[in-house]
């Protein structure tokens, strides 16, 4: 059960406004025109729940209270200043704090991942960096961890306790990601600089419990698809090797005599074809596969009698169970493809479970297909709206996490009206989303079952 964020209270935002923001079932859609403060509220919530105190400090406020699972946690501006101010005596410490912020790492996370690679990232990536040896950097990290603990070591409303309560991964899609995309079109060299930064910044992303999806990079999607396909193939090959490698043990221990073969009566022709298509000829030749089919047909009519029949029944049963386990592992890929295909026009993701590939294929008989003669459509050729859809759902379905709290600013950008109506419901129905905060000025975004979660900014303004 994911933690429930119930409310966010901000006192004296920019010295004058008080907001009492309420969430229902971890869901909120903030509605309002540009300039009403929707994005500001969302950014503050993001920085609070992810502990990005340096970024939170940029906003002027007197205090922030957040309710989680029936308990209130409060942080004042003075508390935040202790984390980002120059209370640490040495400029070296400030430099390390800045480097950690660039890498998106908390001091405690850096200590857990401490090693030569991380040392180089922190200490020697900048020619203007102070001269630091590994022991000095590690000492500062330990001091930072101790300082953070002591700053928030309150028994009733500890921020440290609050951060431990946040048991989901936060995926934030800010509006400025489109600005970055446009800048790269104007300044081509900027793309290389951004890629270099992202490589450094994302190297330790597995340690962080939050991620800003600042651009819909198709290279990231390609990497996730490739990694997923390799993982599926490896798991299948490993399971098959374990099965074939255990033949001798099965024979010596006569394990085949204890096998429940009732599953043989349930096997379908298409499932059998799928199983055999994945097995190399070196394991089962064409003649072996033909014999296997005949054996299955025989066992559907009578029980195996001889030792060799029982052994064959055992092997076939194990192959079927292997196939069922593989189908379970492939579920997220099939769901990803099916969800994206509801948005793609004239093209679709086609998962090949035999060769473990997931290309986008043009529709041969669809007038909406711009290039029906192409064998495959590259991700880079998708429209901006299609890229937004594919990138978002690849994170939901193909990443290692299934506990996302998604924060998305103006999801309607680049999306047609029908897509706007289905986007948020599709996010929630993925089974991977434990919370959702969206900012919009389009009524179509909440013209669906989430309409009750939509509120104007004025509803939350207090005297």
Instruction: Please give the share of residues in helix.
Output: 40-55%
Shape: globular
Which structural class should the secondary elements be placed in?
A: alpha/beta
The DSSP helix count reads: 17
Describe it for me?
The protein is an alpha/beta fold. It has a domain at 231-328. The protein has 17 helices and 13 strands. It has helices spanning 38-49, 53-56, 77-84, 91-103, 107-112, 116-123, 134-151, 159-165, 177-186, 188-202, 218-245, 247-252, 269-277, 286-299, 307-341, 384-398, 417-428; strands spanning 5-13, 17-22, 27-31, 63-68, 71-76, 169-173, 210-212, 347-349, 360-362, 404-409, 433-440, 454-456, 461-462. The strands form three sheets. Strands 7-6-10-11-3-12 form a six-stranded parallel beta sheet. A hairpin with a 2-residue loop joins strand 4 and strand 5 (71-76). The radius of gyration is 27 Å and the shape is globular. Mean pLDDT is 82; it is low at 86-90, 153-157, 176-180 and 200-208.
Quick structural overview:
The chain has 463 residues and is α/β, with parallel strands linked by helices.
Note the main attributes of this structure.
single chain, 463 residues, alpha/beta, six-stranded parallel β-sheet, five-stranded antiparallel β-sheet, 48% helix, globular
Layout: helices, strands, pairs:
Blueprint (H helix, E strand, L loop, with lengths): L4 E9 L3 E6 L4 E5 L6 H12 L3 H4 L6 E6 L2 E6 H8 L6 H13 L3 H6 L3 H8 L10 H18 L7 H7 L3 E5 L3 H10 L1 H15 L7 E3 L5 H28 L1 H6 L16 H9 L8 H14 L7 H35 L5 E3 L10 E3 L21 H15 L5 E6 L7 H12 L4 E8 L13 E3 L4 E2 L1
Parallel strand pairs: 3-11, 3-12, 6-7, 6-10, 10-11
Antiparallel strand pairs: 1-2, 1-4, 2-13, 4-5, 8-9
């Amino acid at each position: 059960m994911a933690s429930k964020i119930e409310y966010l209270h901000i006192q004296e935002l920019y010295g004058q406004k008080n907001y009492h923001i309420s969430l229902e079932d971890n869901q909120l859609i903030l509605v309002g025109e540009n300039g009403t403060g929707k994005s500001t509220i969302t950014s503050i919530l993001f920085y609070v729940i992810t502990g990005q105190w340096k970024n939170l400090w940029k906003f002027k406020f007197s205090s922030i209270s957040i309710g989680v699972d029936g308990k209130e946690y409060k942080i004042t501006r003075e508390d935040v200043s202790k984390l980002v101010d120059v209370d640490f005596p040495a400029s070296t410490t400030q430099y390390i704090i800045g480097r950690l912020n660039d890498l998106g790492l908390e001091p405690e996370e850096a200590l857990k991942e401490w090693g030569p690679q991380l040392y180089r990232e922190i200490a020697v990536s900048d020619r203007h960096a102070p001269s630091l040896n590994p022991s000095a950097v590690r000492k500062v990290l330990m001091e930072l961890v101790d300082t953070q603990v002591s700053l928030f070591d309150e028994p009733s409303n500890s921020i440290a306790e609050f951060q431990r309560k946040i048991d989901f991964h936060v995926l934030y899609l800010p509006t400025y990601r489109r600005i970055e995309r446009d800048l790269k079109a104007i300044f081509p060299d900027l793309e290389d600089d951004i890629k270099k930064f992202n490589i450094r910044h994302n190297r330790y992303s597995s340690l962080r419990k939050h991620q800003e999806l600042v651009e819909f990079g198709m290279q990231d999607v390609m990497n996730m698809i490739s990694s997923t396909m390799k993982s599926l193939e490896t798991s299948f090959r490993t399971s098959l090797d374990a099965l074939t490698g255990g033949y001798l043990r099965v024979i010596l221990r006569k394990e085949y005599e204890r096998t429940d073969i009732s599953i043989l009566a349930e096997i379908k022709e298409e499932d059998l074809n799928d199983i055999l298509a994945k097995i190399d000829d070196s394991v089962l030749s064409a003649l072996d596969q033909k014999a296997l089919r005949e054996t299955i047909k025989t066992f559907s009519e009578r029980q195996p009698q001889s030792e060799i029949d029982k052994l064959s029944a055992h092997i076939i049963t194990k192959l079927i169970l292997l196939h069922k386990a593989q189908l379970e592992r492939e579920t997220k890929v099939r769901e990803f493809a099916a969800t994206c295909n509801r948005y793609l026009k004239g093209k679709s993701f086609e998962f090949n479970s035999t060769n473990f590939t997931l290309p986008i294929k043009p529709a041969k008989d669809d007038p909406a297909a711009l290039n029906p003669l192409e064998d495959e459509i590259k991700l880079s050729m998708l429209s901006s709206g299609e890229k937004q859809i594919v990138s978002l759902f690849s994170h939901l379905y193909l990443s290692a996490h299934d506990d996302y709290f998604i924060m998305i600013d103006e999801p309607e950008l680049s999306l047609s009206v029908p897509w706007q109506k289905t986007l948020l419901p599709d996010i929630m129905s993925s089974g991977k989303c434990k919370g959702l905060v969206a900012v919009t000025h389009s009524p179509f975004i909440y013209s669906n079952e989430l309409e009750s979660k939509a509120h104007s900014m004025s509803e939350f303004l207090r005297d």
